[in-house]
């Protein structure tokens, strides 16, 4: 049972990541290879808030979201001036810079040693969220909250403006909308929500180190979004569930662990290529990327 | 000490220039963001390992066979993935995601066959030449000489051969090439083969010095991309200059700070260029926003 709950918690964490990445990739058509950086910043701020500042659950979560979103805003302003390949390169550059800082600024982040023993967050200073069932509930509540917020965003004037920009940015420009502002808002919101995943990861695993937030992770997040599909809510949900559950399936098939790790990556790669060739909207998305 | 680091920087710079030029051969002409190029660089020394260390062939024969097989790998990528996608007029993002898929598949296939650990090609310590305090190993000389030979050869052919003229024509206007009855897809095969020669040679030369594991491709690709952007997209001599700049810059970083900050500084330079001079040192000004 605990095993099942653990997988579901991981699915919830990845759902928040893919849903927020979907806002920039699927709605704004901006392929970002820097999502793991925001995930990581969120996790490190959470560790700092819970350990050093001794904050309770909601203040820590809010602080993590605010700081990550501010960093996302700055990175967005810089990189969103560029388009296509250049934008992707800029996000990739920031991803690597942030990873290098997390890895090498040892006096602050403890670098490669990571931060162990992150205390469990307390709800209003009363109930301690500790153990697997409370975390499952917490992660589910946060994931559902994020999904609801994004559902509303998609059907709000803001979401429609994003979709319009994706489909025909010049038409939107002629209607007097500020495209750069729209993109920056989307990028900031998405990075803020990636911090929620970081919060859950740091508080649940109680140990973080920079290697969980490297370029491979960023590529993994984008792969999950692409596999699931972009443009709606269903796609990212299916993508997140798929990438988390597939390795466990392989284990049940009886594949030895050392082969399974490589095998699942080969399967992801194959699925990506096949989808890009024959079904660009992913398994369940509605935007033909 | 500084002079020694400078020499090391120039040798590394020559390799970056070689690999970046191979990337530019594909990127400048076809606009394919060939992320799977990292795999081409990584797989070549594994072929040498198979022929030279496992089967006991002569090193030169092993190297030539390895390059031929590397070309085959590159052509398989082009024919199975890039060509069908280009025929469908897929967007750059779609091609890039497929390329990521290709890279994931190939890295994990190599890891499955050869294991994740570092392999070395030969056990003898490389001889070196000393000039007072300075030490230059034969492997370094080989890296520098090999890179320079290929680079100058290519620049010469670009200028004077029919192949070079076609390459420049492809770079400037691909549709017009088709108008003048150049079979662009057939010509792309030659470009992919040539880029594989460059990446494969670079990979073998470096692996001969320090060995390889399945993950060496990505850091080298990233450096090559930064070299290309710094030099400027669209000019073939640009990535060469960019490669040497990065090589020397990284030595200075190692001297002033530590090797850990190398990637961070390289990518900060990338961001600075993307923001203030996106066309690179030699590129023509174009609208990127």
Polypeptide structure, described:
Chain A has one domain (2-211). Helix content of chain A is 74%, strand content 1%. Chain A contains 12 helices and 2 strands, in the order αααααββααααααα. Chain A has helices spanning 2-27, 35-51, 57-79, 84-104, 106-109, 132-155, 157-167, 169-174, 179-205, 215-228, 234-253, 257-278; strands spanning 122-123, 127-128. Chain A has a two-stranded antiparallel ribbon. Chain B has a single domain (2-276), classed as ABC transporter involved in vitamin B12 uptake, BtuC (Orthogonal Bundle). Chain B has a two-stranded antiparallel sheet with strand order 1-2. In chain B, helix 1 packs across helix 9 and helix 5 packs across helix 6. The longest helix of chain B has 29 residues, at 2-30. Chain B is globular, with a radius of gyration of 19 Å. The A-B interface holds A 29, 31, 78-79, 81-86, 88-90, 92-94, 96-97, 100-101, 103-104, 215, 219, 222-223, 226, 259, 262-263, 265-266, 268-273, 276-277, 280, 289 and B 33, 81, 84-85, 88, 90-98, 100-105, 107-109, 111-112, 218, 222, 225, 229, 258, 260-261, 263-264, 267-268, 270-271, 274-275, 278, 288-289.
Count every beta strand of chain B, where a strand is a DSSP E run of 2 or more residues. 2
Q: Can you tell me the CATH topology of chain B?
A: ABC transporter involved in vitamin B12 uptake, BtuC
What is the CATH class designation of chain B?
Mainly Alpha
Give the low-pLDDT segments of chain A.
Answer: none
Largest sheet of chain B: 2 strands, antiparallel
Output mean pLDDT of chain A: 86
Order of helices and strands of chain A: HHHHHEEHHHHHHH
Q: How much is the radius of gyration of chain A in Å?
A: 19 Å
- What does the radius of gyration of chain B come to? 19 Å
Q: What gross morphology of chain A would you assign?
A: globular
| Total DSSP E strands of chain A | 2
Quick one: overall form of chain B? globular
**Class per helix and strand makeup of chain B:** mainly alpha
Residues in β-strands, percent of chain A: under 5%
Main-sheet strand order of chain A equals 1-2
Percentage of residues in helical conformation of chain A: over 70%
Strand content bin of chain B: under 5%
How would a textbook summarize the main sheet of chain A? 2 strands, antiparallel
């Amino acid at each position: 049972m605990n095993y099942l709950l653990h997988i579901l918690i991981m699915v919830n964490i990845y759902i928040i990541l893919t849903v927020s990445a979907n806002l920039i990739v699927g709605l704004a058509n901006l392929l970002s290879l820097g999502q793991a950086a925001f995930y990581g910043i969120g996790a490190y701020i959470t560790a700092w808030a819970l350990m050093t500042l001794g904050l309770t659950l909601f203040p820590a979560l809010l602080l993590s979201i605010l700081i990550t979103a501010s960093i996302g805003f700055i990175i967005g302003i810089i990189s969103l001036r560029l388009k296509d390949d250049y934008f992707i390169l800029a996000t990739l550059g920031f991803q690597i810079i942030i990873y290098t800082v997390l890895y090498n600024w040892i006096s602050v982040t403890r670098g490669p040693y990571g931060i162990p023993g992150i205390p469990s967050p307390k709800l209003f200073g009363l109930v301690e969220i500790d153990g697997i069932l409370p975390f499952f509930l917490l992660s589910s509540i946060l994931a559902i909250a994020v999904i609801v917020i994004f559902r509303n965003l998609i059907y709000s004037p803001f979401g429609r403006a994003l979709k319009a920009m994706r489909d025909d940015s010049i038409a939107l420009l002629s209607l007097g909308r500020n495209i750069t502002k729209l993109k920056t808002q989307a990028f900031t919101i998405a990075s803020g929500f990636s911090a929620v995943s970081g919060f859950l990861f740091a508080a649940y695993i109680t140990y973080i180190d920079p290697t969980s937030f490297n370029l491979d992770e960023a590529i993994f997040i984008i792969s999950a979004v692409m596999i699931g599909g972009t443009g709606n809510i269903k796609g990212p949900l299916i993508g997140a569930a798929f990438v988390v559950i597939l390795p466990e399936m392989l284990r049940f098939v009886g594949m030895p662990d050392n082969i399974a790790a490589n095998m699942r990556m080969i399967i992801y790669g194959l699925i990506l290529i096949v989808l890009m060739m024959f079904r660009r909207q992913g398994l369940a998305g509605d935007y033909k990327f | 000490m500084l002079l020694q680091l400078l020499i090391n920087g120039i040798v590394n710079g020559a390799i970056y220039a070689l690999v970046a030029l191979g990337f530019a051969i594909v990127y400048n002409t076809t606009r394919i963001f060939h992320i799977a190029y990292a795999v081409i660089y990584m797989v070549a020394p594994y072929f040498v390992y198979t022929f030279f260390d496992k089967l006991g062939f002569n090193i030169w024969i092993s190297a030539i066979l390895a390059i031929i097989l590397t070309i085959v790998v590159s052509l398989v990528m082009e024919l199975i993935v890039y060509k069908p996608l280009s025929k469908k007029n897929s967007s750059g993002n779609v091609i890039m995601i497929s390329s990521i898929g290709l890279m994931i598949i190939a890295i994990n296939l190599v890891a499955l066959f050869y294991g994740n650990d570092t392999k070395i090609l030969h056990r003898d310590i490389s001889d070196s030449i000393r000039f007072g305090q300075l030490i230059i190993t034969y492997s370094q000389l080989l890296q520098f000489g090999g890179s320079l030979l290929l680079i100058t050869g290519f620049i010469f052919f670009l200028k004077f051969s029919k192949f070079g003229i076609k390459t420049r024509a492809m770079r400037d206007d691909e549709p017009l090439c088709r108008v003048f009855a150049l079979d662009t897809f057939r010509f792309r095969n030659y470009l992919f083969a040539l880029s594989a020669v460059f990446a494969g040679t670079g990979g073998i030369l470096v692996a001969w010095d320090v060995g390889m594991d399945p993950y060496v491709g990505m850091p080298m690709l990233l450096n090559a991309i930064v070299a290309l952007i710094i030099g400027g997209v669209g000019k073939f001599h640009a990535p060469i200059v960019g490669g040497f700049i990065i090589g020397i810059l990284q030595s200075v970083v190692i001297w002033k700070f530590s090797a850990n900050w190398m990637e961070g500084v390289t990518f900060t330079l990338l961001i600075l260029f993307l923001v203030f001079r996106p066309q690179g040192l030699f590129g023509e000004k174009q609208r990127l926003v």
